[in-house]
Design a protein that fits this description.
The chain is of the alpha/beta class and 492 residues long. It is built from 16 helices and 11 strands. It is globular and about 65 Å long.
């Protein structure tokens, strides 16, 4: 079969069960595509062909024996921030260029237990800090819709791999938009779950109170399948929540769009820098949801202006603490011939970290230092609470909140935005992490340059099923999620 990469997760699962094709055939099919097409896209940092084929054979055996999990034998790609035993985990950094984790992240372990086949590890901004994936030590990834454009970030490799049909599903992480924004830039679906829904164990920490892993795929239905595997309490992550997990697949038709109240924040649609095409596509998608029976309700989110400064204090503060473990002593990059211990720390860190990571460590260290702590860090924490309350108030009147996922479509590679320009591009995603809420990106059309536009729906706590269900129903009434980039149409 030449078009195995066209099949949805449900179709793949059925095909494998009925032995229409084997996991080995499917895995070889994807590996062939990666060998040919990823030479242009550059979404993978590491391809684990041998291990993938061994996993595929094991899945085939389980399928034959009739005791396989629903997803057994289906390939996936992991963002290179999830620790994988025996396989390099780099976090896109020179610091971890040679790092091999002695254990699997819980997300990886769960995927393995479900019989999913790991194709490899995909590219990302260094330590997940960025919005373009260009800060990766391993170089930029191309956007499958226009290879001279970025796929977004930080989970840019995950989004590009899915959009180019180089993996049917991928894991991503989202600290301030890193699942939703690349999903938006690459025209795929991506879900950022409620903080605590997916274990962070073995997920390399950027800003621990904001980081959350989630699924990236071509449709809400495919995301639901992966959510069923990765969601749940984990004793190894004290911030993961011990709360019953929904059956996200069974619930796909659970929420009726009819009667749904969708909040439209006034402040969001007047943001300077909101691209006219993005605004138009998002408004059209809302119109469609209205036709499907939803009601649009104008709401106020008064704290909008505080999102960027609050996040860019809290996230770097946590990063400066988390990244202090990379000292050149225990693991990771170590400089040549250190004179003494201070020289070892200094040079290992200045040679091992890229510019953006160093910038954030400096900002964070400053914000946490004695004398500035109250003025910056404590104040930001107070504003964070106000941002959360703003959302909770809004959810008294509406079921979900709509926004663009990003104010623009994908930037050109090398556009070299200043840090502040880049940070402002996160305006629509940051508050969701600050409040710990779930949110989803759905592709809703293209701009004048044929680059994808994404709609973001923000839900109340634990509403992942509702968000997936709304987008699933939207996708059954539209075909934006079925559009493929020209490069995805190529055969290996
Ligand atoms: N773009 C944001 C940042 O640079 C978000 C990154 C993320 O979610 N990991 O921090």
């Amino acid at each position: 079969m030449t078009d195995l990469h066209r099949l949805s997760i449900r179709e793949l699962s059925e095909g494998l069960k009925k032995a229409q094709f084997s996991s080995r055939e499917l895995t070889e099919h994807y590996l062939k595509r990666i060998a040919k097409i990823d030479a242009k896209v550059k979404s993978y940092v590491t391809v684990t062909a041998e291990q993938a084929l061994a996993e595929a054979d094991a899945a085939d055996a389980a399928l034959k024996a009739g005791h396989a999990h629903a997803l057994a034998g289906i390939p996936l790609a992991h963002k290179d921030i999830f620790c994988t035993q025996g396989i390099k985990t780099t976090a896109g950094s020179k610091m971890l260029d040679n790092f091999i984790s002695p254990y699997d992240a819980t997300v990886v372990a769960k995927a393995k237990a479900a019989g999913l086949v790991t194709l490899g590890k995909v590219n990302m901004d260094e330590f997940a800090m960025g919005s373009t994936s260009e800060s990766s030590y391993f170089g930029a990834t191309g956007n499958p819709w226009a290879l001279d454009h970025v796929p977004g970030g930080s989970s840019g490799g995950s989004a590009a791999a899915v959009a180019a049909d180089l993996a049917p599903i991928a894991t991503g992480t989202d600290t301030g938009g890193s699942i939703r924004q690349p999903a938006s830039f690459c025209g795929i679906t991506g879900l950022k779950p409620t903080y605590g829904r997916v274990s962070r164990f073995g997920m390399i920490a950027y800003a621990s109170s904001l980081d959350q892993g989630g699924p990236m795929a071509r449709s809400a239905e495919d995301c639901a399948y992966l959510m069923n595997v990765i969601a749940g309490h984990d004793a190894k992550d004290s911030t993961s929540v011990d709360k019953e997990v929904d059956d996200y697949v069974a619930n796909l038709n659970g929420t009726a769009v009819k009667g749904l109240r969708i909040g439209i924040p006034k402040q969001y649609f007047n943001v300077a820098g909101l691209d006219a095409d993005v605004k138009a596509r998002v408004e059209e998608s809302l119109k469609k949801l209205e036709e499907m029976g939803a009601t649009l309700v104008e709401i106020d989110l008064n704290m909008t202006e505080a999102y960027v400064p609050t996040y860019y204090l809290i996230a770097p503060a946590e990063a400066s603490s988390n990244l202090s473990r990379y000292d050149g002593v225990r693991y990771g990059y170590r400089c040549e011939n250190p004179k003494d211990i201070l020289d070892l720390y200094k040079r290992s860190r200045s040679e091992g970290f890229g510019a953006e990571v160093q910038r954030r460590i400096l900002i964070g260290t400053y914000a946490l230092s004695a004398g500035y702590y109250d003025a910056y860090y404590v104040k930001a924490q107070k504003v964070r609470r106000l941002i959360q309350q703003d959302f909770l108030k809004a959810f008294e009147n509406v079921d979900v909140i709509a926004a663009p996922s990003a104010p623009t479509t994908a930037y050109k590679i090398g556009a070299n935005l200043s840090p502040t320009e880049m940070y402002l591009g996160d305006i629509y995603t940051l508050a969701v992490n600050l409040a710990g809420l779930p949110a989803i990106n759905a592709p809703v059309g293209f701009d004048k340059d044929s680059l994808p536009v994404g709609l973001q729906l923000i839900g109340n706590y634990w509403s992942e099923s509702q968000l997936l269900s709304i987008v699933h129903q939207y996708q059954q009434n539209t075909d934006w999620h079925t559009k493929r980039a020209a490069i995805a149409e190529e055969n290996a």
